[in-house]
Each structure stands twice: as structure tokens, then as C-alpha cells.
Automatic annotation (TrEMBL), chains A, B:
Residues 40-199 form the Ferritin-like domain. InterPro entries: Ferritin-like, Ferritin_actino, Haem_Oase-like_multi-hlx. It comes from Agromyces mariniharenae. Gene3D superfamilies: 1.20.1260.10. This is Ferritin-like domain-containing protein. Pfam families: MiaE_2 (PF13794).
Length: 235, 235
């Protein structure tokens, strides 16, 4: 998924990408220095929200209690709103959202299947980890979009969604069943690789390859660790 | 599911239920003469919307094309909005929605499984027929609620939801595969019984039993026939 580009008019105050520097300085490369091309950025972000919606809807349908169903259905509504709001941004740019999203469908569909788990708890953790990492990731990448678009996109992606209900349900499940903690810790770790691959696919290999983006991923993994810690799970 | 009651203060201008009359006059019994008890009415209606949402979300997840996914995801959003709006009405009445919905869950869950079909097209027709009949049914029953509540509930239920996208997808599928028409016609007929049972469960047997509510169901079935006709299917 190559869609990072030099085509945008440079903004003088923020160089597009630092010149290659020594490894110690590379650690300072940050999200604001990556400049996503708006259309495919929005397409991938929108399609990913649709996947989160689908997983949340599945979590609603298989929820063991009505309060869980309620909380998750509200969260599914948020993911759906994010999806439709990103779609609306694509329409504002004069493109057909389906055409833009289509190239991202196969990999994102595989990602959803790979992260939806073997039961309801794994499904919940799968959503919590992947949506937590990717919402944060795309929101930070949006800093590199044209300013107004970028701030609208960040507002869309930063809306509080599933994390509270997912954390509540997972914590109470783990408290009731200590064995579940071990299984979920393992599952949580296995989710990171797939999520990073999706994150990676959003960066143009030629421009942001190898070491350059290492700090971006380091930040993503730090987020993940905080999220696992909050559940009392070993990341 | 017995929740029709005499407990409400009678509104002088609309007698709660006509006295028993001769069969020829019974044909005139209409929805406005049925007085639902607000709390369980809202609970059942809200839970049914959650089921529509779940089926629509499943239709999104299994949609063969991205445009279908898009249209259905918007429809799923509408069902979810209806669900949450009805829940909000329950909260206004000072009750806990989960407690009110819980008694309706088992029968409604069974109903959803029974009407979700063997493939994507049957799922779509299942939603189209059941949501079409029941949204109309509950909206008309809402005429018997206290006036302000009733008009809010009707506005919630009457929001255009899935019917356009479902009709479009089904029509194009039927046009491409004439054999599908026969199978779907059969499936459509088989949905009526289950849907009427759910409708029936919303009427208190003691007050609106037997012939009294026949015209209500006649109207429901006429709706169904119109809906099948629009798809070119024999009802």
C-alpha cells in the first residue's frame, strides 16, 4: 500500500522528511515529519474503521450479557460514525470512496480475520489492541495532512470509542478467571505483528523505509504496552 | 409477552378498546384502539432494533461488494440509532433499559436466527421483510401511547432505514438469477409466520385476543404483499 508522496506543495515550516542522519538522531523522527497523501490515507483509515465496526458488531451479537451488548453497540456506532465521517472527507475531495477503499480491502479483511480471535474475550482484546494502536497511529499521521483536513481527521479518529467498554469487560473477565489472563497476554502479544504490518503498509517503503520509521513503531509499541498494563496483562 | 394494560388513565376521546361487537364491525378495529403499556412496548421495540442491527451488521460483514457494504453499513447505523433512541426514551421514564429488554431477548434472539437465512440474499430478504413489517407495526401501535411519547416513538421508528438498499440489492440479484426469485419467494413466505408471532407477542392475549386483532394482522400481511410485489416476488 504505497501512497506516501512528495507531490504536495511543501510547507516551509515543516520539512517533509529530514535528511538521513546518524542513528542517534533518527530516534527523533516523529509523526509530523511523515506526509501522507490524503486520498489513500483516508481510504485506508475509512476501511479500517469499517473493519472495527464489523468486529464490534460481531462482539455485540455474541455478547453474553445485555449490558455488554449495550456498551458494545454504542462503540460499534462510534466506529461506524468514524467510517462515514472519513468517507465524507473523501467525497469532499471529489473522489468515490469505494474506489479508494477497494485496494485496501483484501489486506484489511485478512487483518480482521487474523485478529478476531477464537472466542468473545479474544475478539474483545483483538479490537481493543488493534483499534487502540491504529486509531492512535492514523490520528498522529494525520498531523502530516493539510492543516484543516488534518485537524478534522484527528477529531474524527480521536473520538472516544470502544476502549472504555472493552477495558471494563476484559478486566472483569480476567478478575473472574486468572487462567484467562495468561491466554489473553499471549493473544495480545500475537496481535502486535499483524497490527504493525497494517501500520507499515501505510508508509511508502521508498521514503520511510527501514530505520527511519523505527521511532514511529517504537511509539506504537509503547502504546500497546500501556494498554496491556492497564488490563494487568504482560505485554 | 403480556404487557397490554388498562392501567393508564383513560383518554376520554379514545376509548381503550371497543366493546365486543359483531364480527362485521370487528373489521374496523384499528391500531389506535390498542393501548400499549409504554415501558415494555419500548423495551421490546428497542430490543428488536438491536436484532435488526445485528443482522444488518452481518450483512455488512458478508457483503460481496463494497457499494453493498456501504449501503448496508448506513442502514445498520440507522437501526442502531433507533435502538439507542428507544433506550433513551426508557431512561426518560426512569427505568433501566437492560432490565426492560431482558425478558424479550430469548424470543427475539430465536426470531433473528430463524429469519437470517441460509445465505446473503436470504439474510437481506429476511431483514427487509421482518424490519419492514415490524417497524410499521410498532410505529402504528405507538399511536396508542401517550401523545407526545407516541409521536417521538413514531418519528424514531419511521426513519427511513434499510429498505432502499435492501430492495436495490435484492432486485439486482433477482434480475441476474431468475432461480433466485423462486427461492426467495418461498423464503419470503416462510418469514411471515415468525414475524406475526413476534407481533402477536406484543399484544396482551386477554385483551386483544382472537378475532379482535385480526384486522391488525390483515394490515401487516397486506404490507408484506406490497413489499414482495415490489421485488417481483409472489407473496
Amino acid at each position: 500500500m504505497v501512497f506516501w508522496t512528495n507531490r504536495r506543495v511543501p510547507r516551509p515550516e515543516t520539512p517533509r522528511m529530514r535528511p538521513r542522519v546518524a542513528p542517534t538522531e533518527l530516534a527523533k523522527v516523529d509523526f509530523a515529519e511523515l506526509v501522507p497523501e490524503p486520498v489513500p490515507f483516508l481510504g485506508q483509515a475509512a476501511y479500517i474503521q469499517l473493519e472495527f465496526f464489523e468486529n464490534l458488531a460481531r462482539a455485540v451479537a455474541t455478547a453474553p450479557t445485555l449490558p455488554a451488548k449495550e456498551g458494545l453497540s454504542a462503540a460499534a456506532g462510534v466506529a461506524l460514525r468514524k467510517h462515514h465521517a472519513l468517507i465524507a472527507e473523501l467525497r469532499r475531495l471529489g473522489v468515490e470512496p469505494d474506489d479508494v477503499m477497494a485496494p485496501f480491502a483484501p489486506a484489511t479483511d485478512r487483518f480482521r480475520l487474523a485478529t478476531s480471535g477464537a472466542d468473545w474475550f479474544e475478539l474483545l482484546l483483538g479490537i481493543h489492541i488493534t483499534a487502540g494502536m491504529l486509531d492512535g497511529y492514523f490520528s498522529r499521521l494525520a498531523q502530516g495532512l493539510p492543516v484543516e483536513l488534518g485537524s478534522r481527521v484527528r477529531a474524527i479518529l480521536d473520538e472516544e470509542g470502544a476502549s472504555v467498554v472493552l477495558e471494563t469487560e476484559l478486566k472483569s473477565a480476567i478478575a473472574n478467571d486468572p487462567d484467562l489472563a495468561d491466554r489473553l497476554a499471549l493473544w495480545g502479544r500475537s496481535l502486535v505483528g499483524d497490527t504493525l504490518l497494517i501500520a507499515r503498509s501505510a508508509l511508502r517503503a521508498s521514503e520511510a523505509s527501514g530505520d527511519d520509521v523505527e521511532p514511529v513503531f517504537t511509539e506504537l509499541i509503547a502504546d500497546h504496552t500501556r494498554r496491556m498494563d492497564a488490563l494487568g496483562l504482560t505485554a
